[in-house]
Amino acid sequence: MPLLEVTGLTVGFGEVESVGDVSFAIDSGERFGLIGESGSGKTLTALAVTGLLPENARRSGLIAFDDAPLPENERALARLRGKRIGMVFQEPMTALNPLMRVGAQIAEALALTDTPGDVGALLEEVGLEPRHAGRYPHQLSGGQRQRVMIAMALASQPDLLIADEPTSALDLVTQAKVLDLIAELCTRRGMALLFISHDLKAVARLCERVAVMHRGQIVETGATGEILGAPREDYTRKLVAASQLHLYADAGPPAGPVLLETEGLTRRYRQPGTWFLAGKPLTAVDAVTFSIHRGESVALVGPSGSGKTTLARMLVGLDKASDGRIHFEGETYTGADLPAHLRRDLSLVFQDPFGSFDPRLTVAASLAEPLRLLPAMSAAERDQRVNDAIEAVGLPAAMLTRYPHEFSGGQRQRLAIARALVTRPKFIVLDEPVSALDVSIRGEILALLMQVRRDYGLTYLIISHDLDMVRAIAGRVLVMQAGRIVEEGTPEAVFAAPKHALTRELVAARMPDLD
Amino acid sequence: MTFSRHPSLWIGLGATGVFALLALVSLVWTPYPIAEIDIARRFQGPSAAHWLGTDFFGRDMASLVMSGALTSFVVAALAVAIGAGIGIPLGLAAASYGGPMEWLALRLSDFIFAFPALIVAILITALFGPGAINAIVAIGIFNIPVFARVARGGSLTIMSLDFIDAARLAGLGSWAIAWRHLLPNILALIIVQATIQLSLGILAEAGLSYIGLGTQPPATSLGLMLKDAQSLFMLHPFLSLVPGVAIVVIVIALNLAGDGLRDALDPRLRRQGAPHAAA
Predict the structure, then answer these.
(1) Hey, are the CB atoms on A366 and B279 less than 8 Å from each other?
(2) Nearest CA-CA distance, residue B90 and chain A, Å
(3) Nearest residue in A to B188, CA atom
(4) Distance between CA A326 and CA A319 in Å, rounded?
(5) Which residues of A touch B268 (CB under 8 A)?
(6) Is residue B64 packed enough to be buried (19+ CB in 10 Å), middle (13-18) or exposed (0-12)?
(7) For B171, which of A43, A343, A351 is closest by C-beta distance?
(8) Chain A residues whose beta carbon lies within 8 Å of the beta carbon of residue B161
(9) Which of chain B's residues have a Cβ under 8 Å away from the Cβ of A18?
């Protein structure tokens, strides 16, 4: 007898059917994964199961929990949600009340469900210490917040835990730890799990059985090993193929002379102190010295908050170093004083493809913006440059007149690369270039990056916490922790025999390959 | 932007438009000249000859309302222009330069906020004498910090987006970023605020004229009409009612239009109507 049985679930908005005829069942104690790209209807399915669909949604089909259909009555439904179903959401910062101490929030979850329990014990169960109860959400790290969310979900001792992309906002080390925690809790409490993710490897690590969703429908269901090891459907095969990154042979050793070099580069931020006394300065980047050769592809790896992005912003001239120097092609600068004639040689591709274009400008206007760094050119020359750039990233020039909202995430990231290319730079910093994208299109974007690197003879500095991606496209790895570079070497050497504790942790957090 | 989706926008814009049109027409034609005094026909009720009756000088009330509405609109609109013209660049500069510039702009707007329009108007009147121009300047000064804050607040959320950094990488200076990227993205906010300030300006002008610091006779404004009629309120309440209702209707219409514009222009509110198709 399954714990949760969904039969012929259909969810629609107006004319559009977002989820069509979805059926699956979860036994008690079973860990079930729902895989799909963004927009495939997996979150709507989870919301339907908990009766939390938006008001304008139409739902049909049967959802039975413990052999009883989901109550229509809002109160009864709320009681069921509170007592028997726990939920963990994607973004732990917005799911917690920022004005309440987390201990009080967990206590509230206990009180609302009349469950005897102890906040301290729950915190301990999710791997936090009792002293964390007195903190506010903003005083905790992303991983700790997600643990608090899990503790709240556990408060009612639910039979089913629904986790909607619980780790995609976390860095890889934390992600692995949270996944392990969820697995351990399910086993210890005999709790069933509905795990929703676009990350095949996370699902493979956690779930016994999976369903693959595509355009609102389940295309395949079965045991994890079978589905991901030997997929029957084309779509699943595509997903599996996309999650295995192609290794690029020419990511290899440096060829040319030194292009960029830093010397004791340091960035300190002043922190607010009491009254007029300045607080203790926070050192985001601490005396970093390294060099990058022409034609190299170097990865900068580290957990969130290790200073990777601050370092990159100084290199491209968006932030000013407190100490130290940067040399680029024989010229010296400290960050924001980057000489104007060097700016065209340095470029940056941002992480978030949605925030990196002005919604009020056409794509052509945005792409042409960096051209002001070059000597004056005619309108025809400009258009030619922009056309070349957009075609280099595999998009038709006819798209130039459109506005950013008309593009998908993957297309926008292509456009961001095109903008970085338009001045024909020598050096590009890629700040987490694919981490905001669906797994299925990451491979394409990486292939594109390697393609333009060959075509334009570029040097890359790739910022990432994803070791698989780093292994695929970087020839050398710098590992960064707390503002310092703690290890350096080729990806093979570093990942095979990590010396520093952090590197070992990063390597251990890697998701197992699918087969 | 259909009527059924934004009824308050269309009602508000429609009513404002009617009054604005009447005010404009008064430039070239009013039923009677507003300065024409004829004691013999004073205190007449509404009739075919005088739609809204006549006042204590025998002037035609309909003509006065048309002309008064023009004064009110012109004063409020110029005050908005002054406030927006100084306040928006101030707010944009505060957001895009940051640091000392921001401190200066914020302290300046705090300083102006500390003086209500009325106090500023009294000060200006004490220095330069009463008149419509002084009302414009006083209300305009009061509008500066309002627009500065709206421009800065809207810009701050946009400043944190990556495309601003992309523009810096492309070599744009702070001012170019403010002009090219910030202003177009906060325009909707500013239009809504301008509508609301317009209605507040009309109220402020009425208030200033009522206490004798605004428009001076023989010119007229809705506030001045109220002031003239108030001593006769017990005898001829209709004289106060006409300009009072006109002010109320204009202000409500402008507020409706402002709310409607906010709904129509603010993408966050627009998105709430659409299905949450994220999955």
Answers:
(1) no
(2) 22
(3) A360
(4) 12
(5) none
(6) buried
(7) A343
(8) 355-356
(9) 275, 277, 279
Q: What ipTM is given for this predicted complex?
A: 0.75
List residues bridging with A30 in a β-sheet.
Answer: none
Chosen for mutation from A18, A270, A369 (greatest number of chain B CBs closer than 10 Å) is: A369
Strands A323-328 and A282-288 come out as unpaired
State the alpha helices, DSSP H only, in A85-139: 92-95, 102-112, 119-125
**Are the beta carbons of A373 and B275 separated by less than 8 Å?**
no
Minimal-distance CA residue of chain A relative to B182 = A358
Token duo for residue A218:
């389940």
CB-CB under 8 Å, B181 with A42: no
Q: Among all residues of chain B, which has the CA nearest to that of A213?
A: B279
Partners of residue B265 in chain A, C-beta under 8 Å: none
Q: Read off the tokens for A424.
A: 């024909």
3-state secondary structure A317-361: CCCCCCEEEEEECCEEECCCCCCHHHHCCEEEECCCCCCCCCCCC
Burial (CB count <10 Å: 0-12, 13-18, 19+), residue B275: middle
Place of tokens 């014990």: A121
Tell me which chain B residue has its CA closest to the CA of residue A40. B279
CA distances from A97 to A50, A92, A154, B131 (A): 21, 10, 17, 54
Residues forming a β-bridge with A97: none
Task: State the Cα–Cα distance between residues B186 and A262, nearest whole angstrom.
Answer: 39
Provide the token pair at A90: 């994607």
Using an 8 Å CB-CB cutoff, list chain A residues near B178: none
pLDDT tens per residue across all 279 residues of chain B: 566 677 888 888 888 888 888 888 888 887 777 777 777 777 777 777 777 777 777 778 888 888 888 888 898 999 999 999 999 999 999 988 888 888 888 888 888 888 776 787 788 878 887 778 888 888 898 899 999 999 999 998 888 888 998 898 888 888 889 999 999 889 888 988 998 899 888 888 888 888 887 777 777 888 888 888 888 877 778 888 888 888 899 999 988 888 888 777 765 544 443 333 332
Specify the residue for token string 């949760």: A4
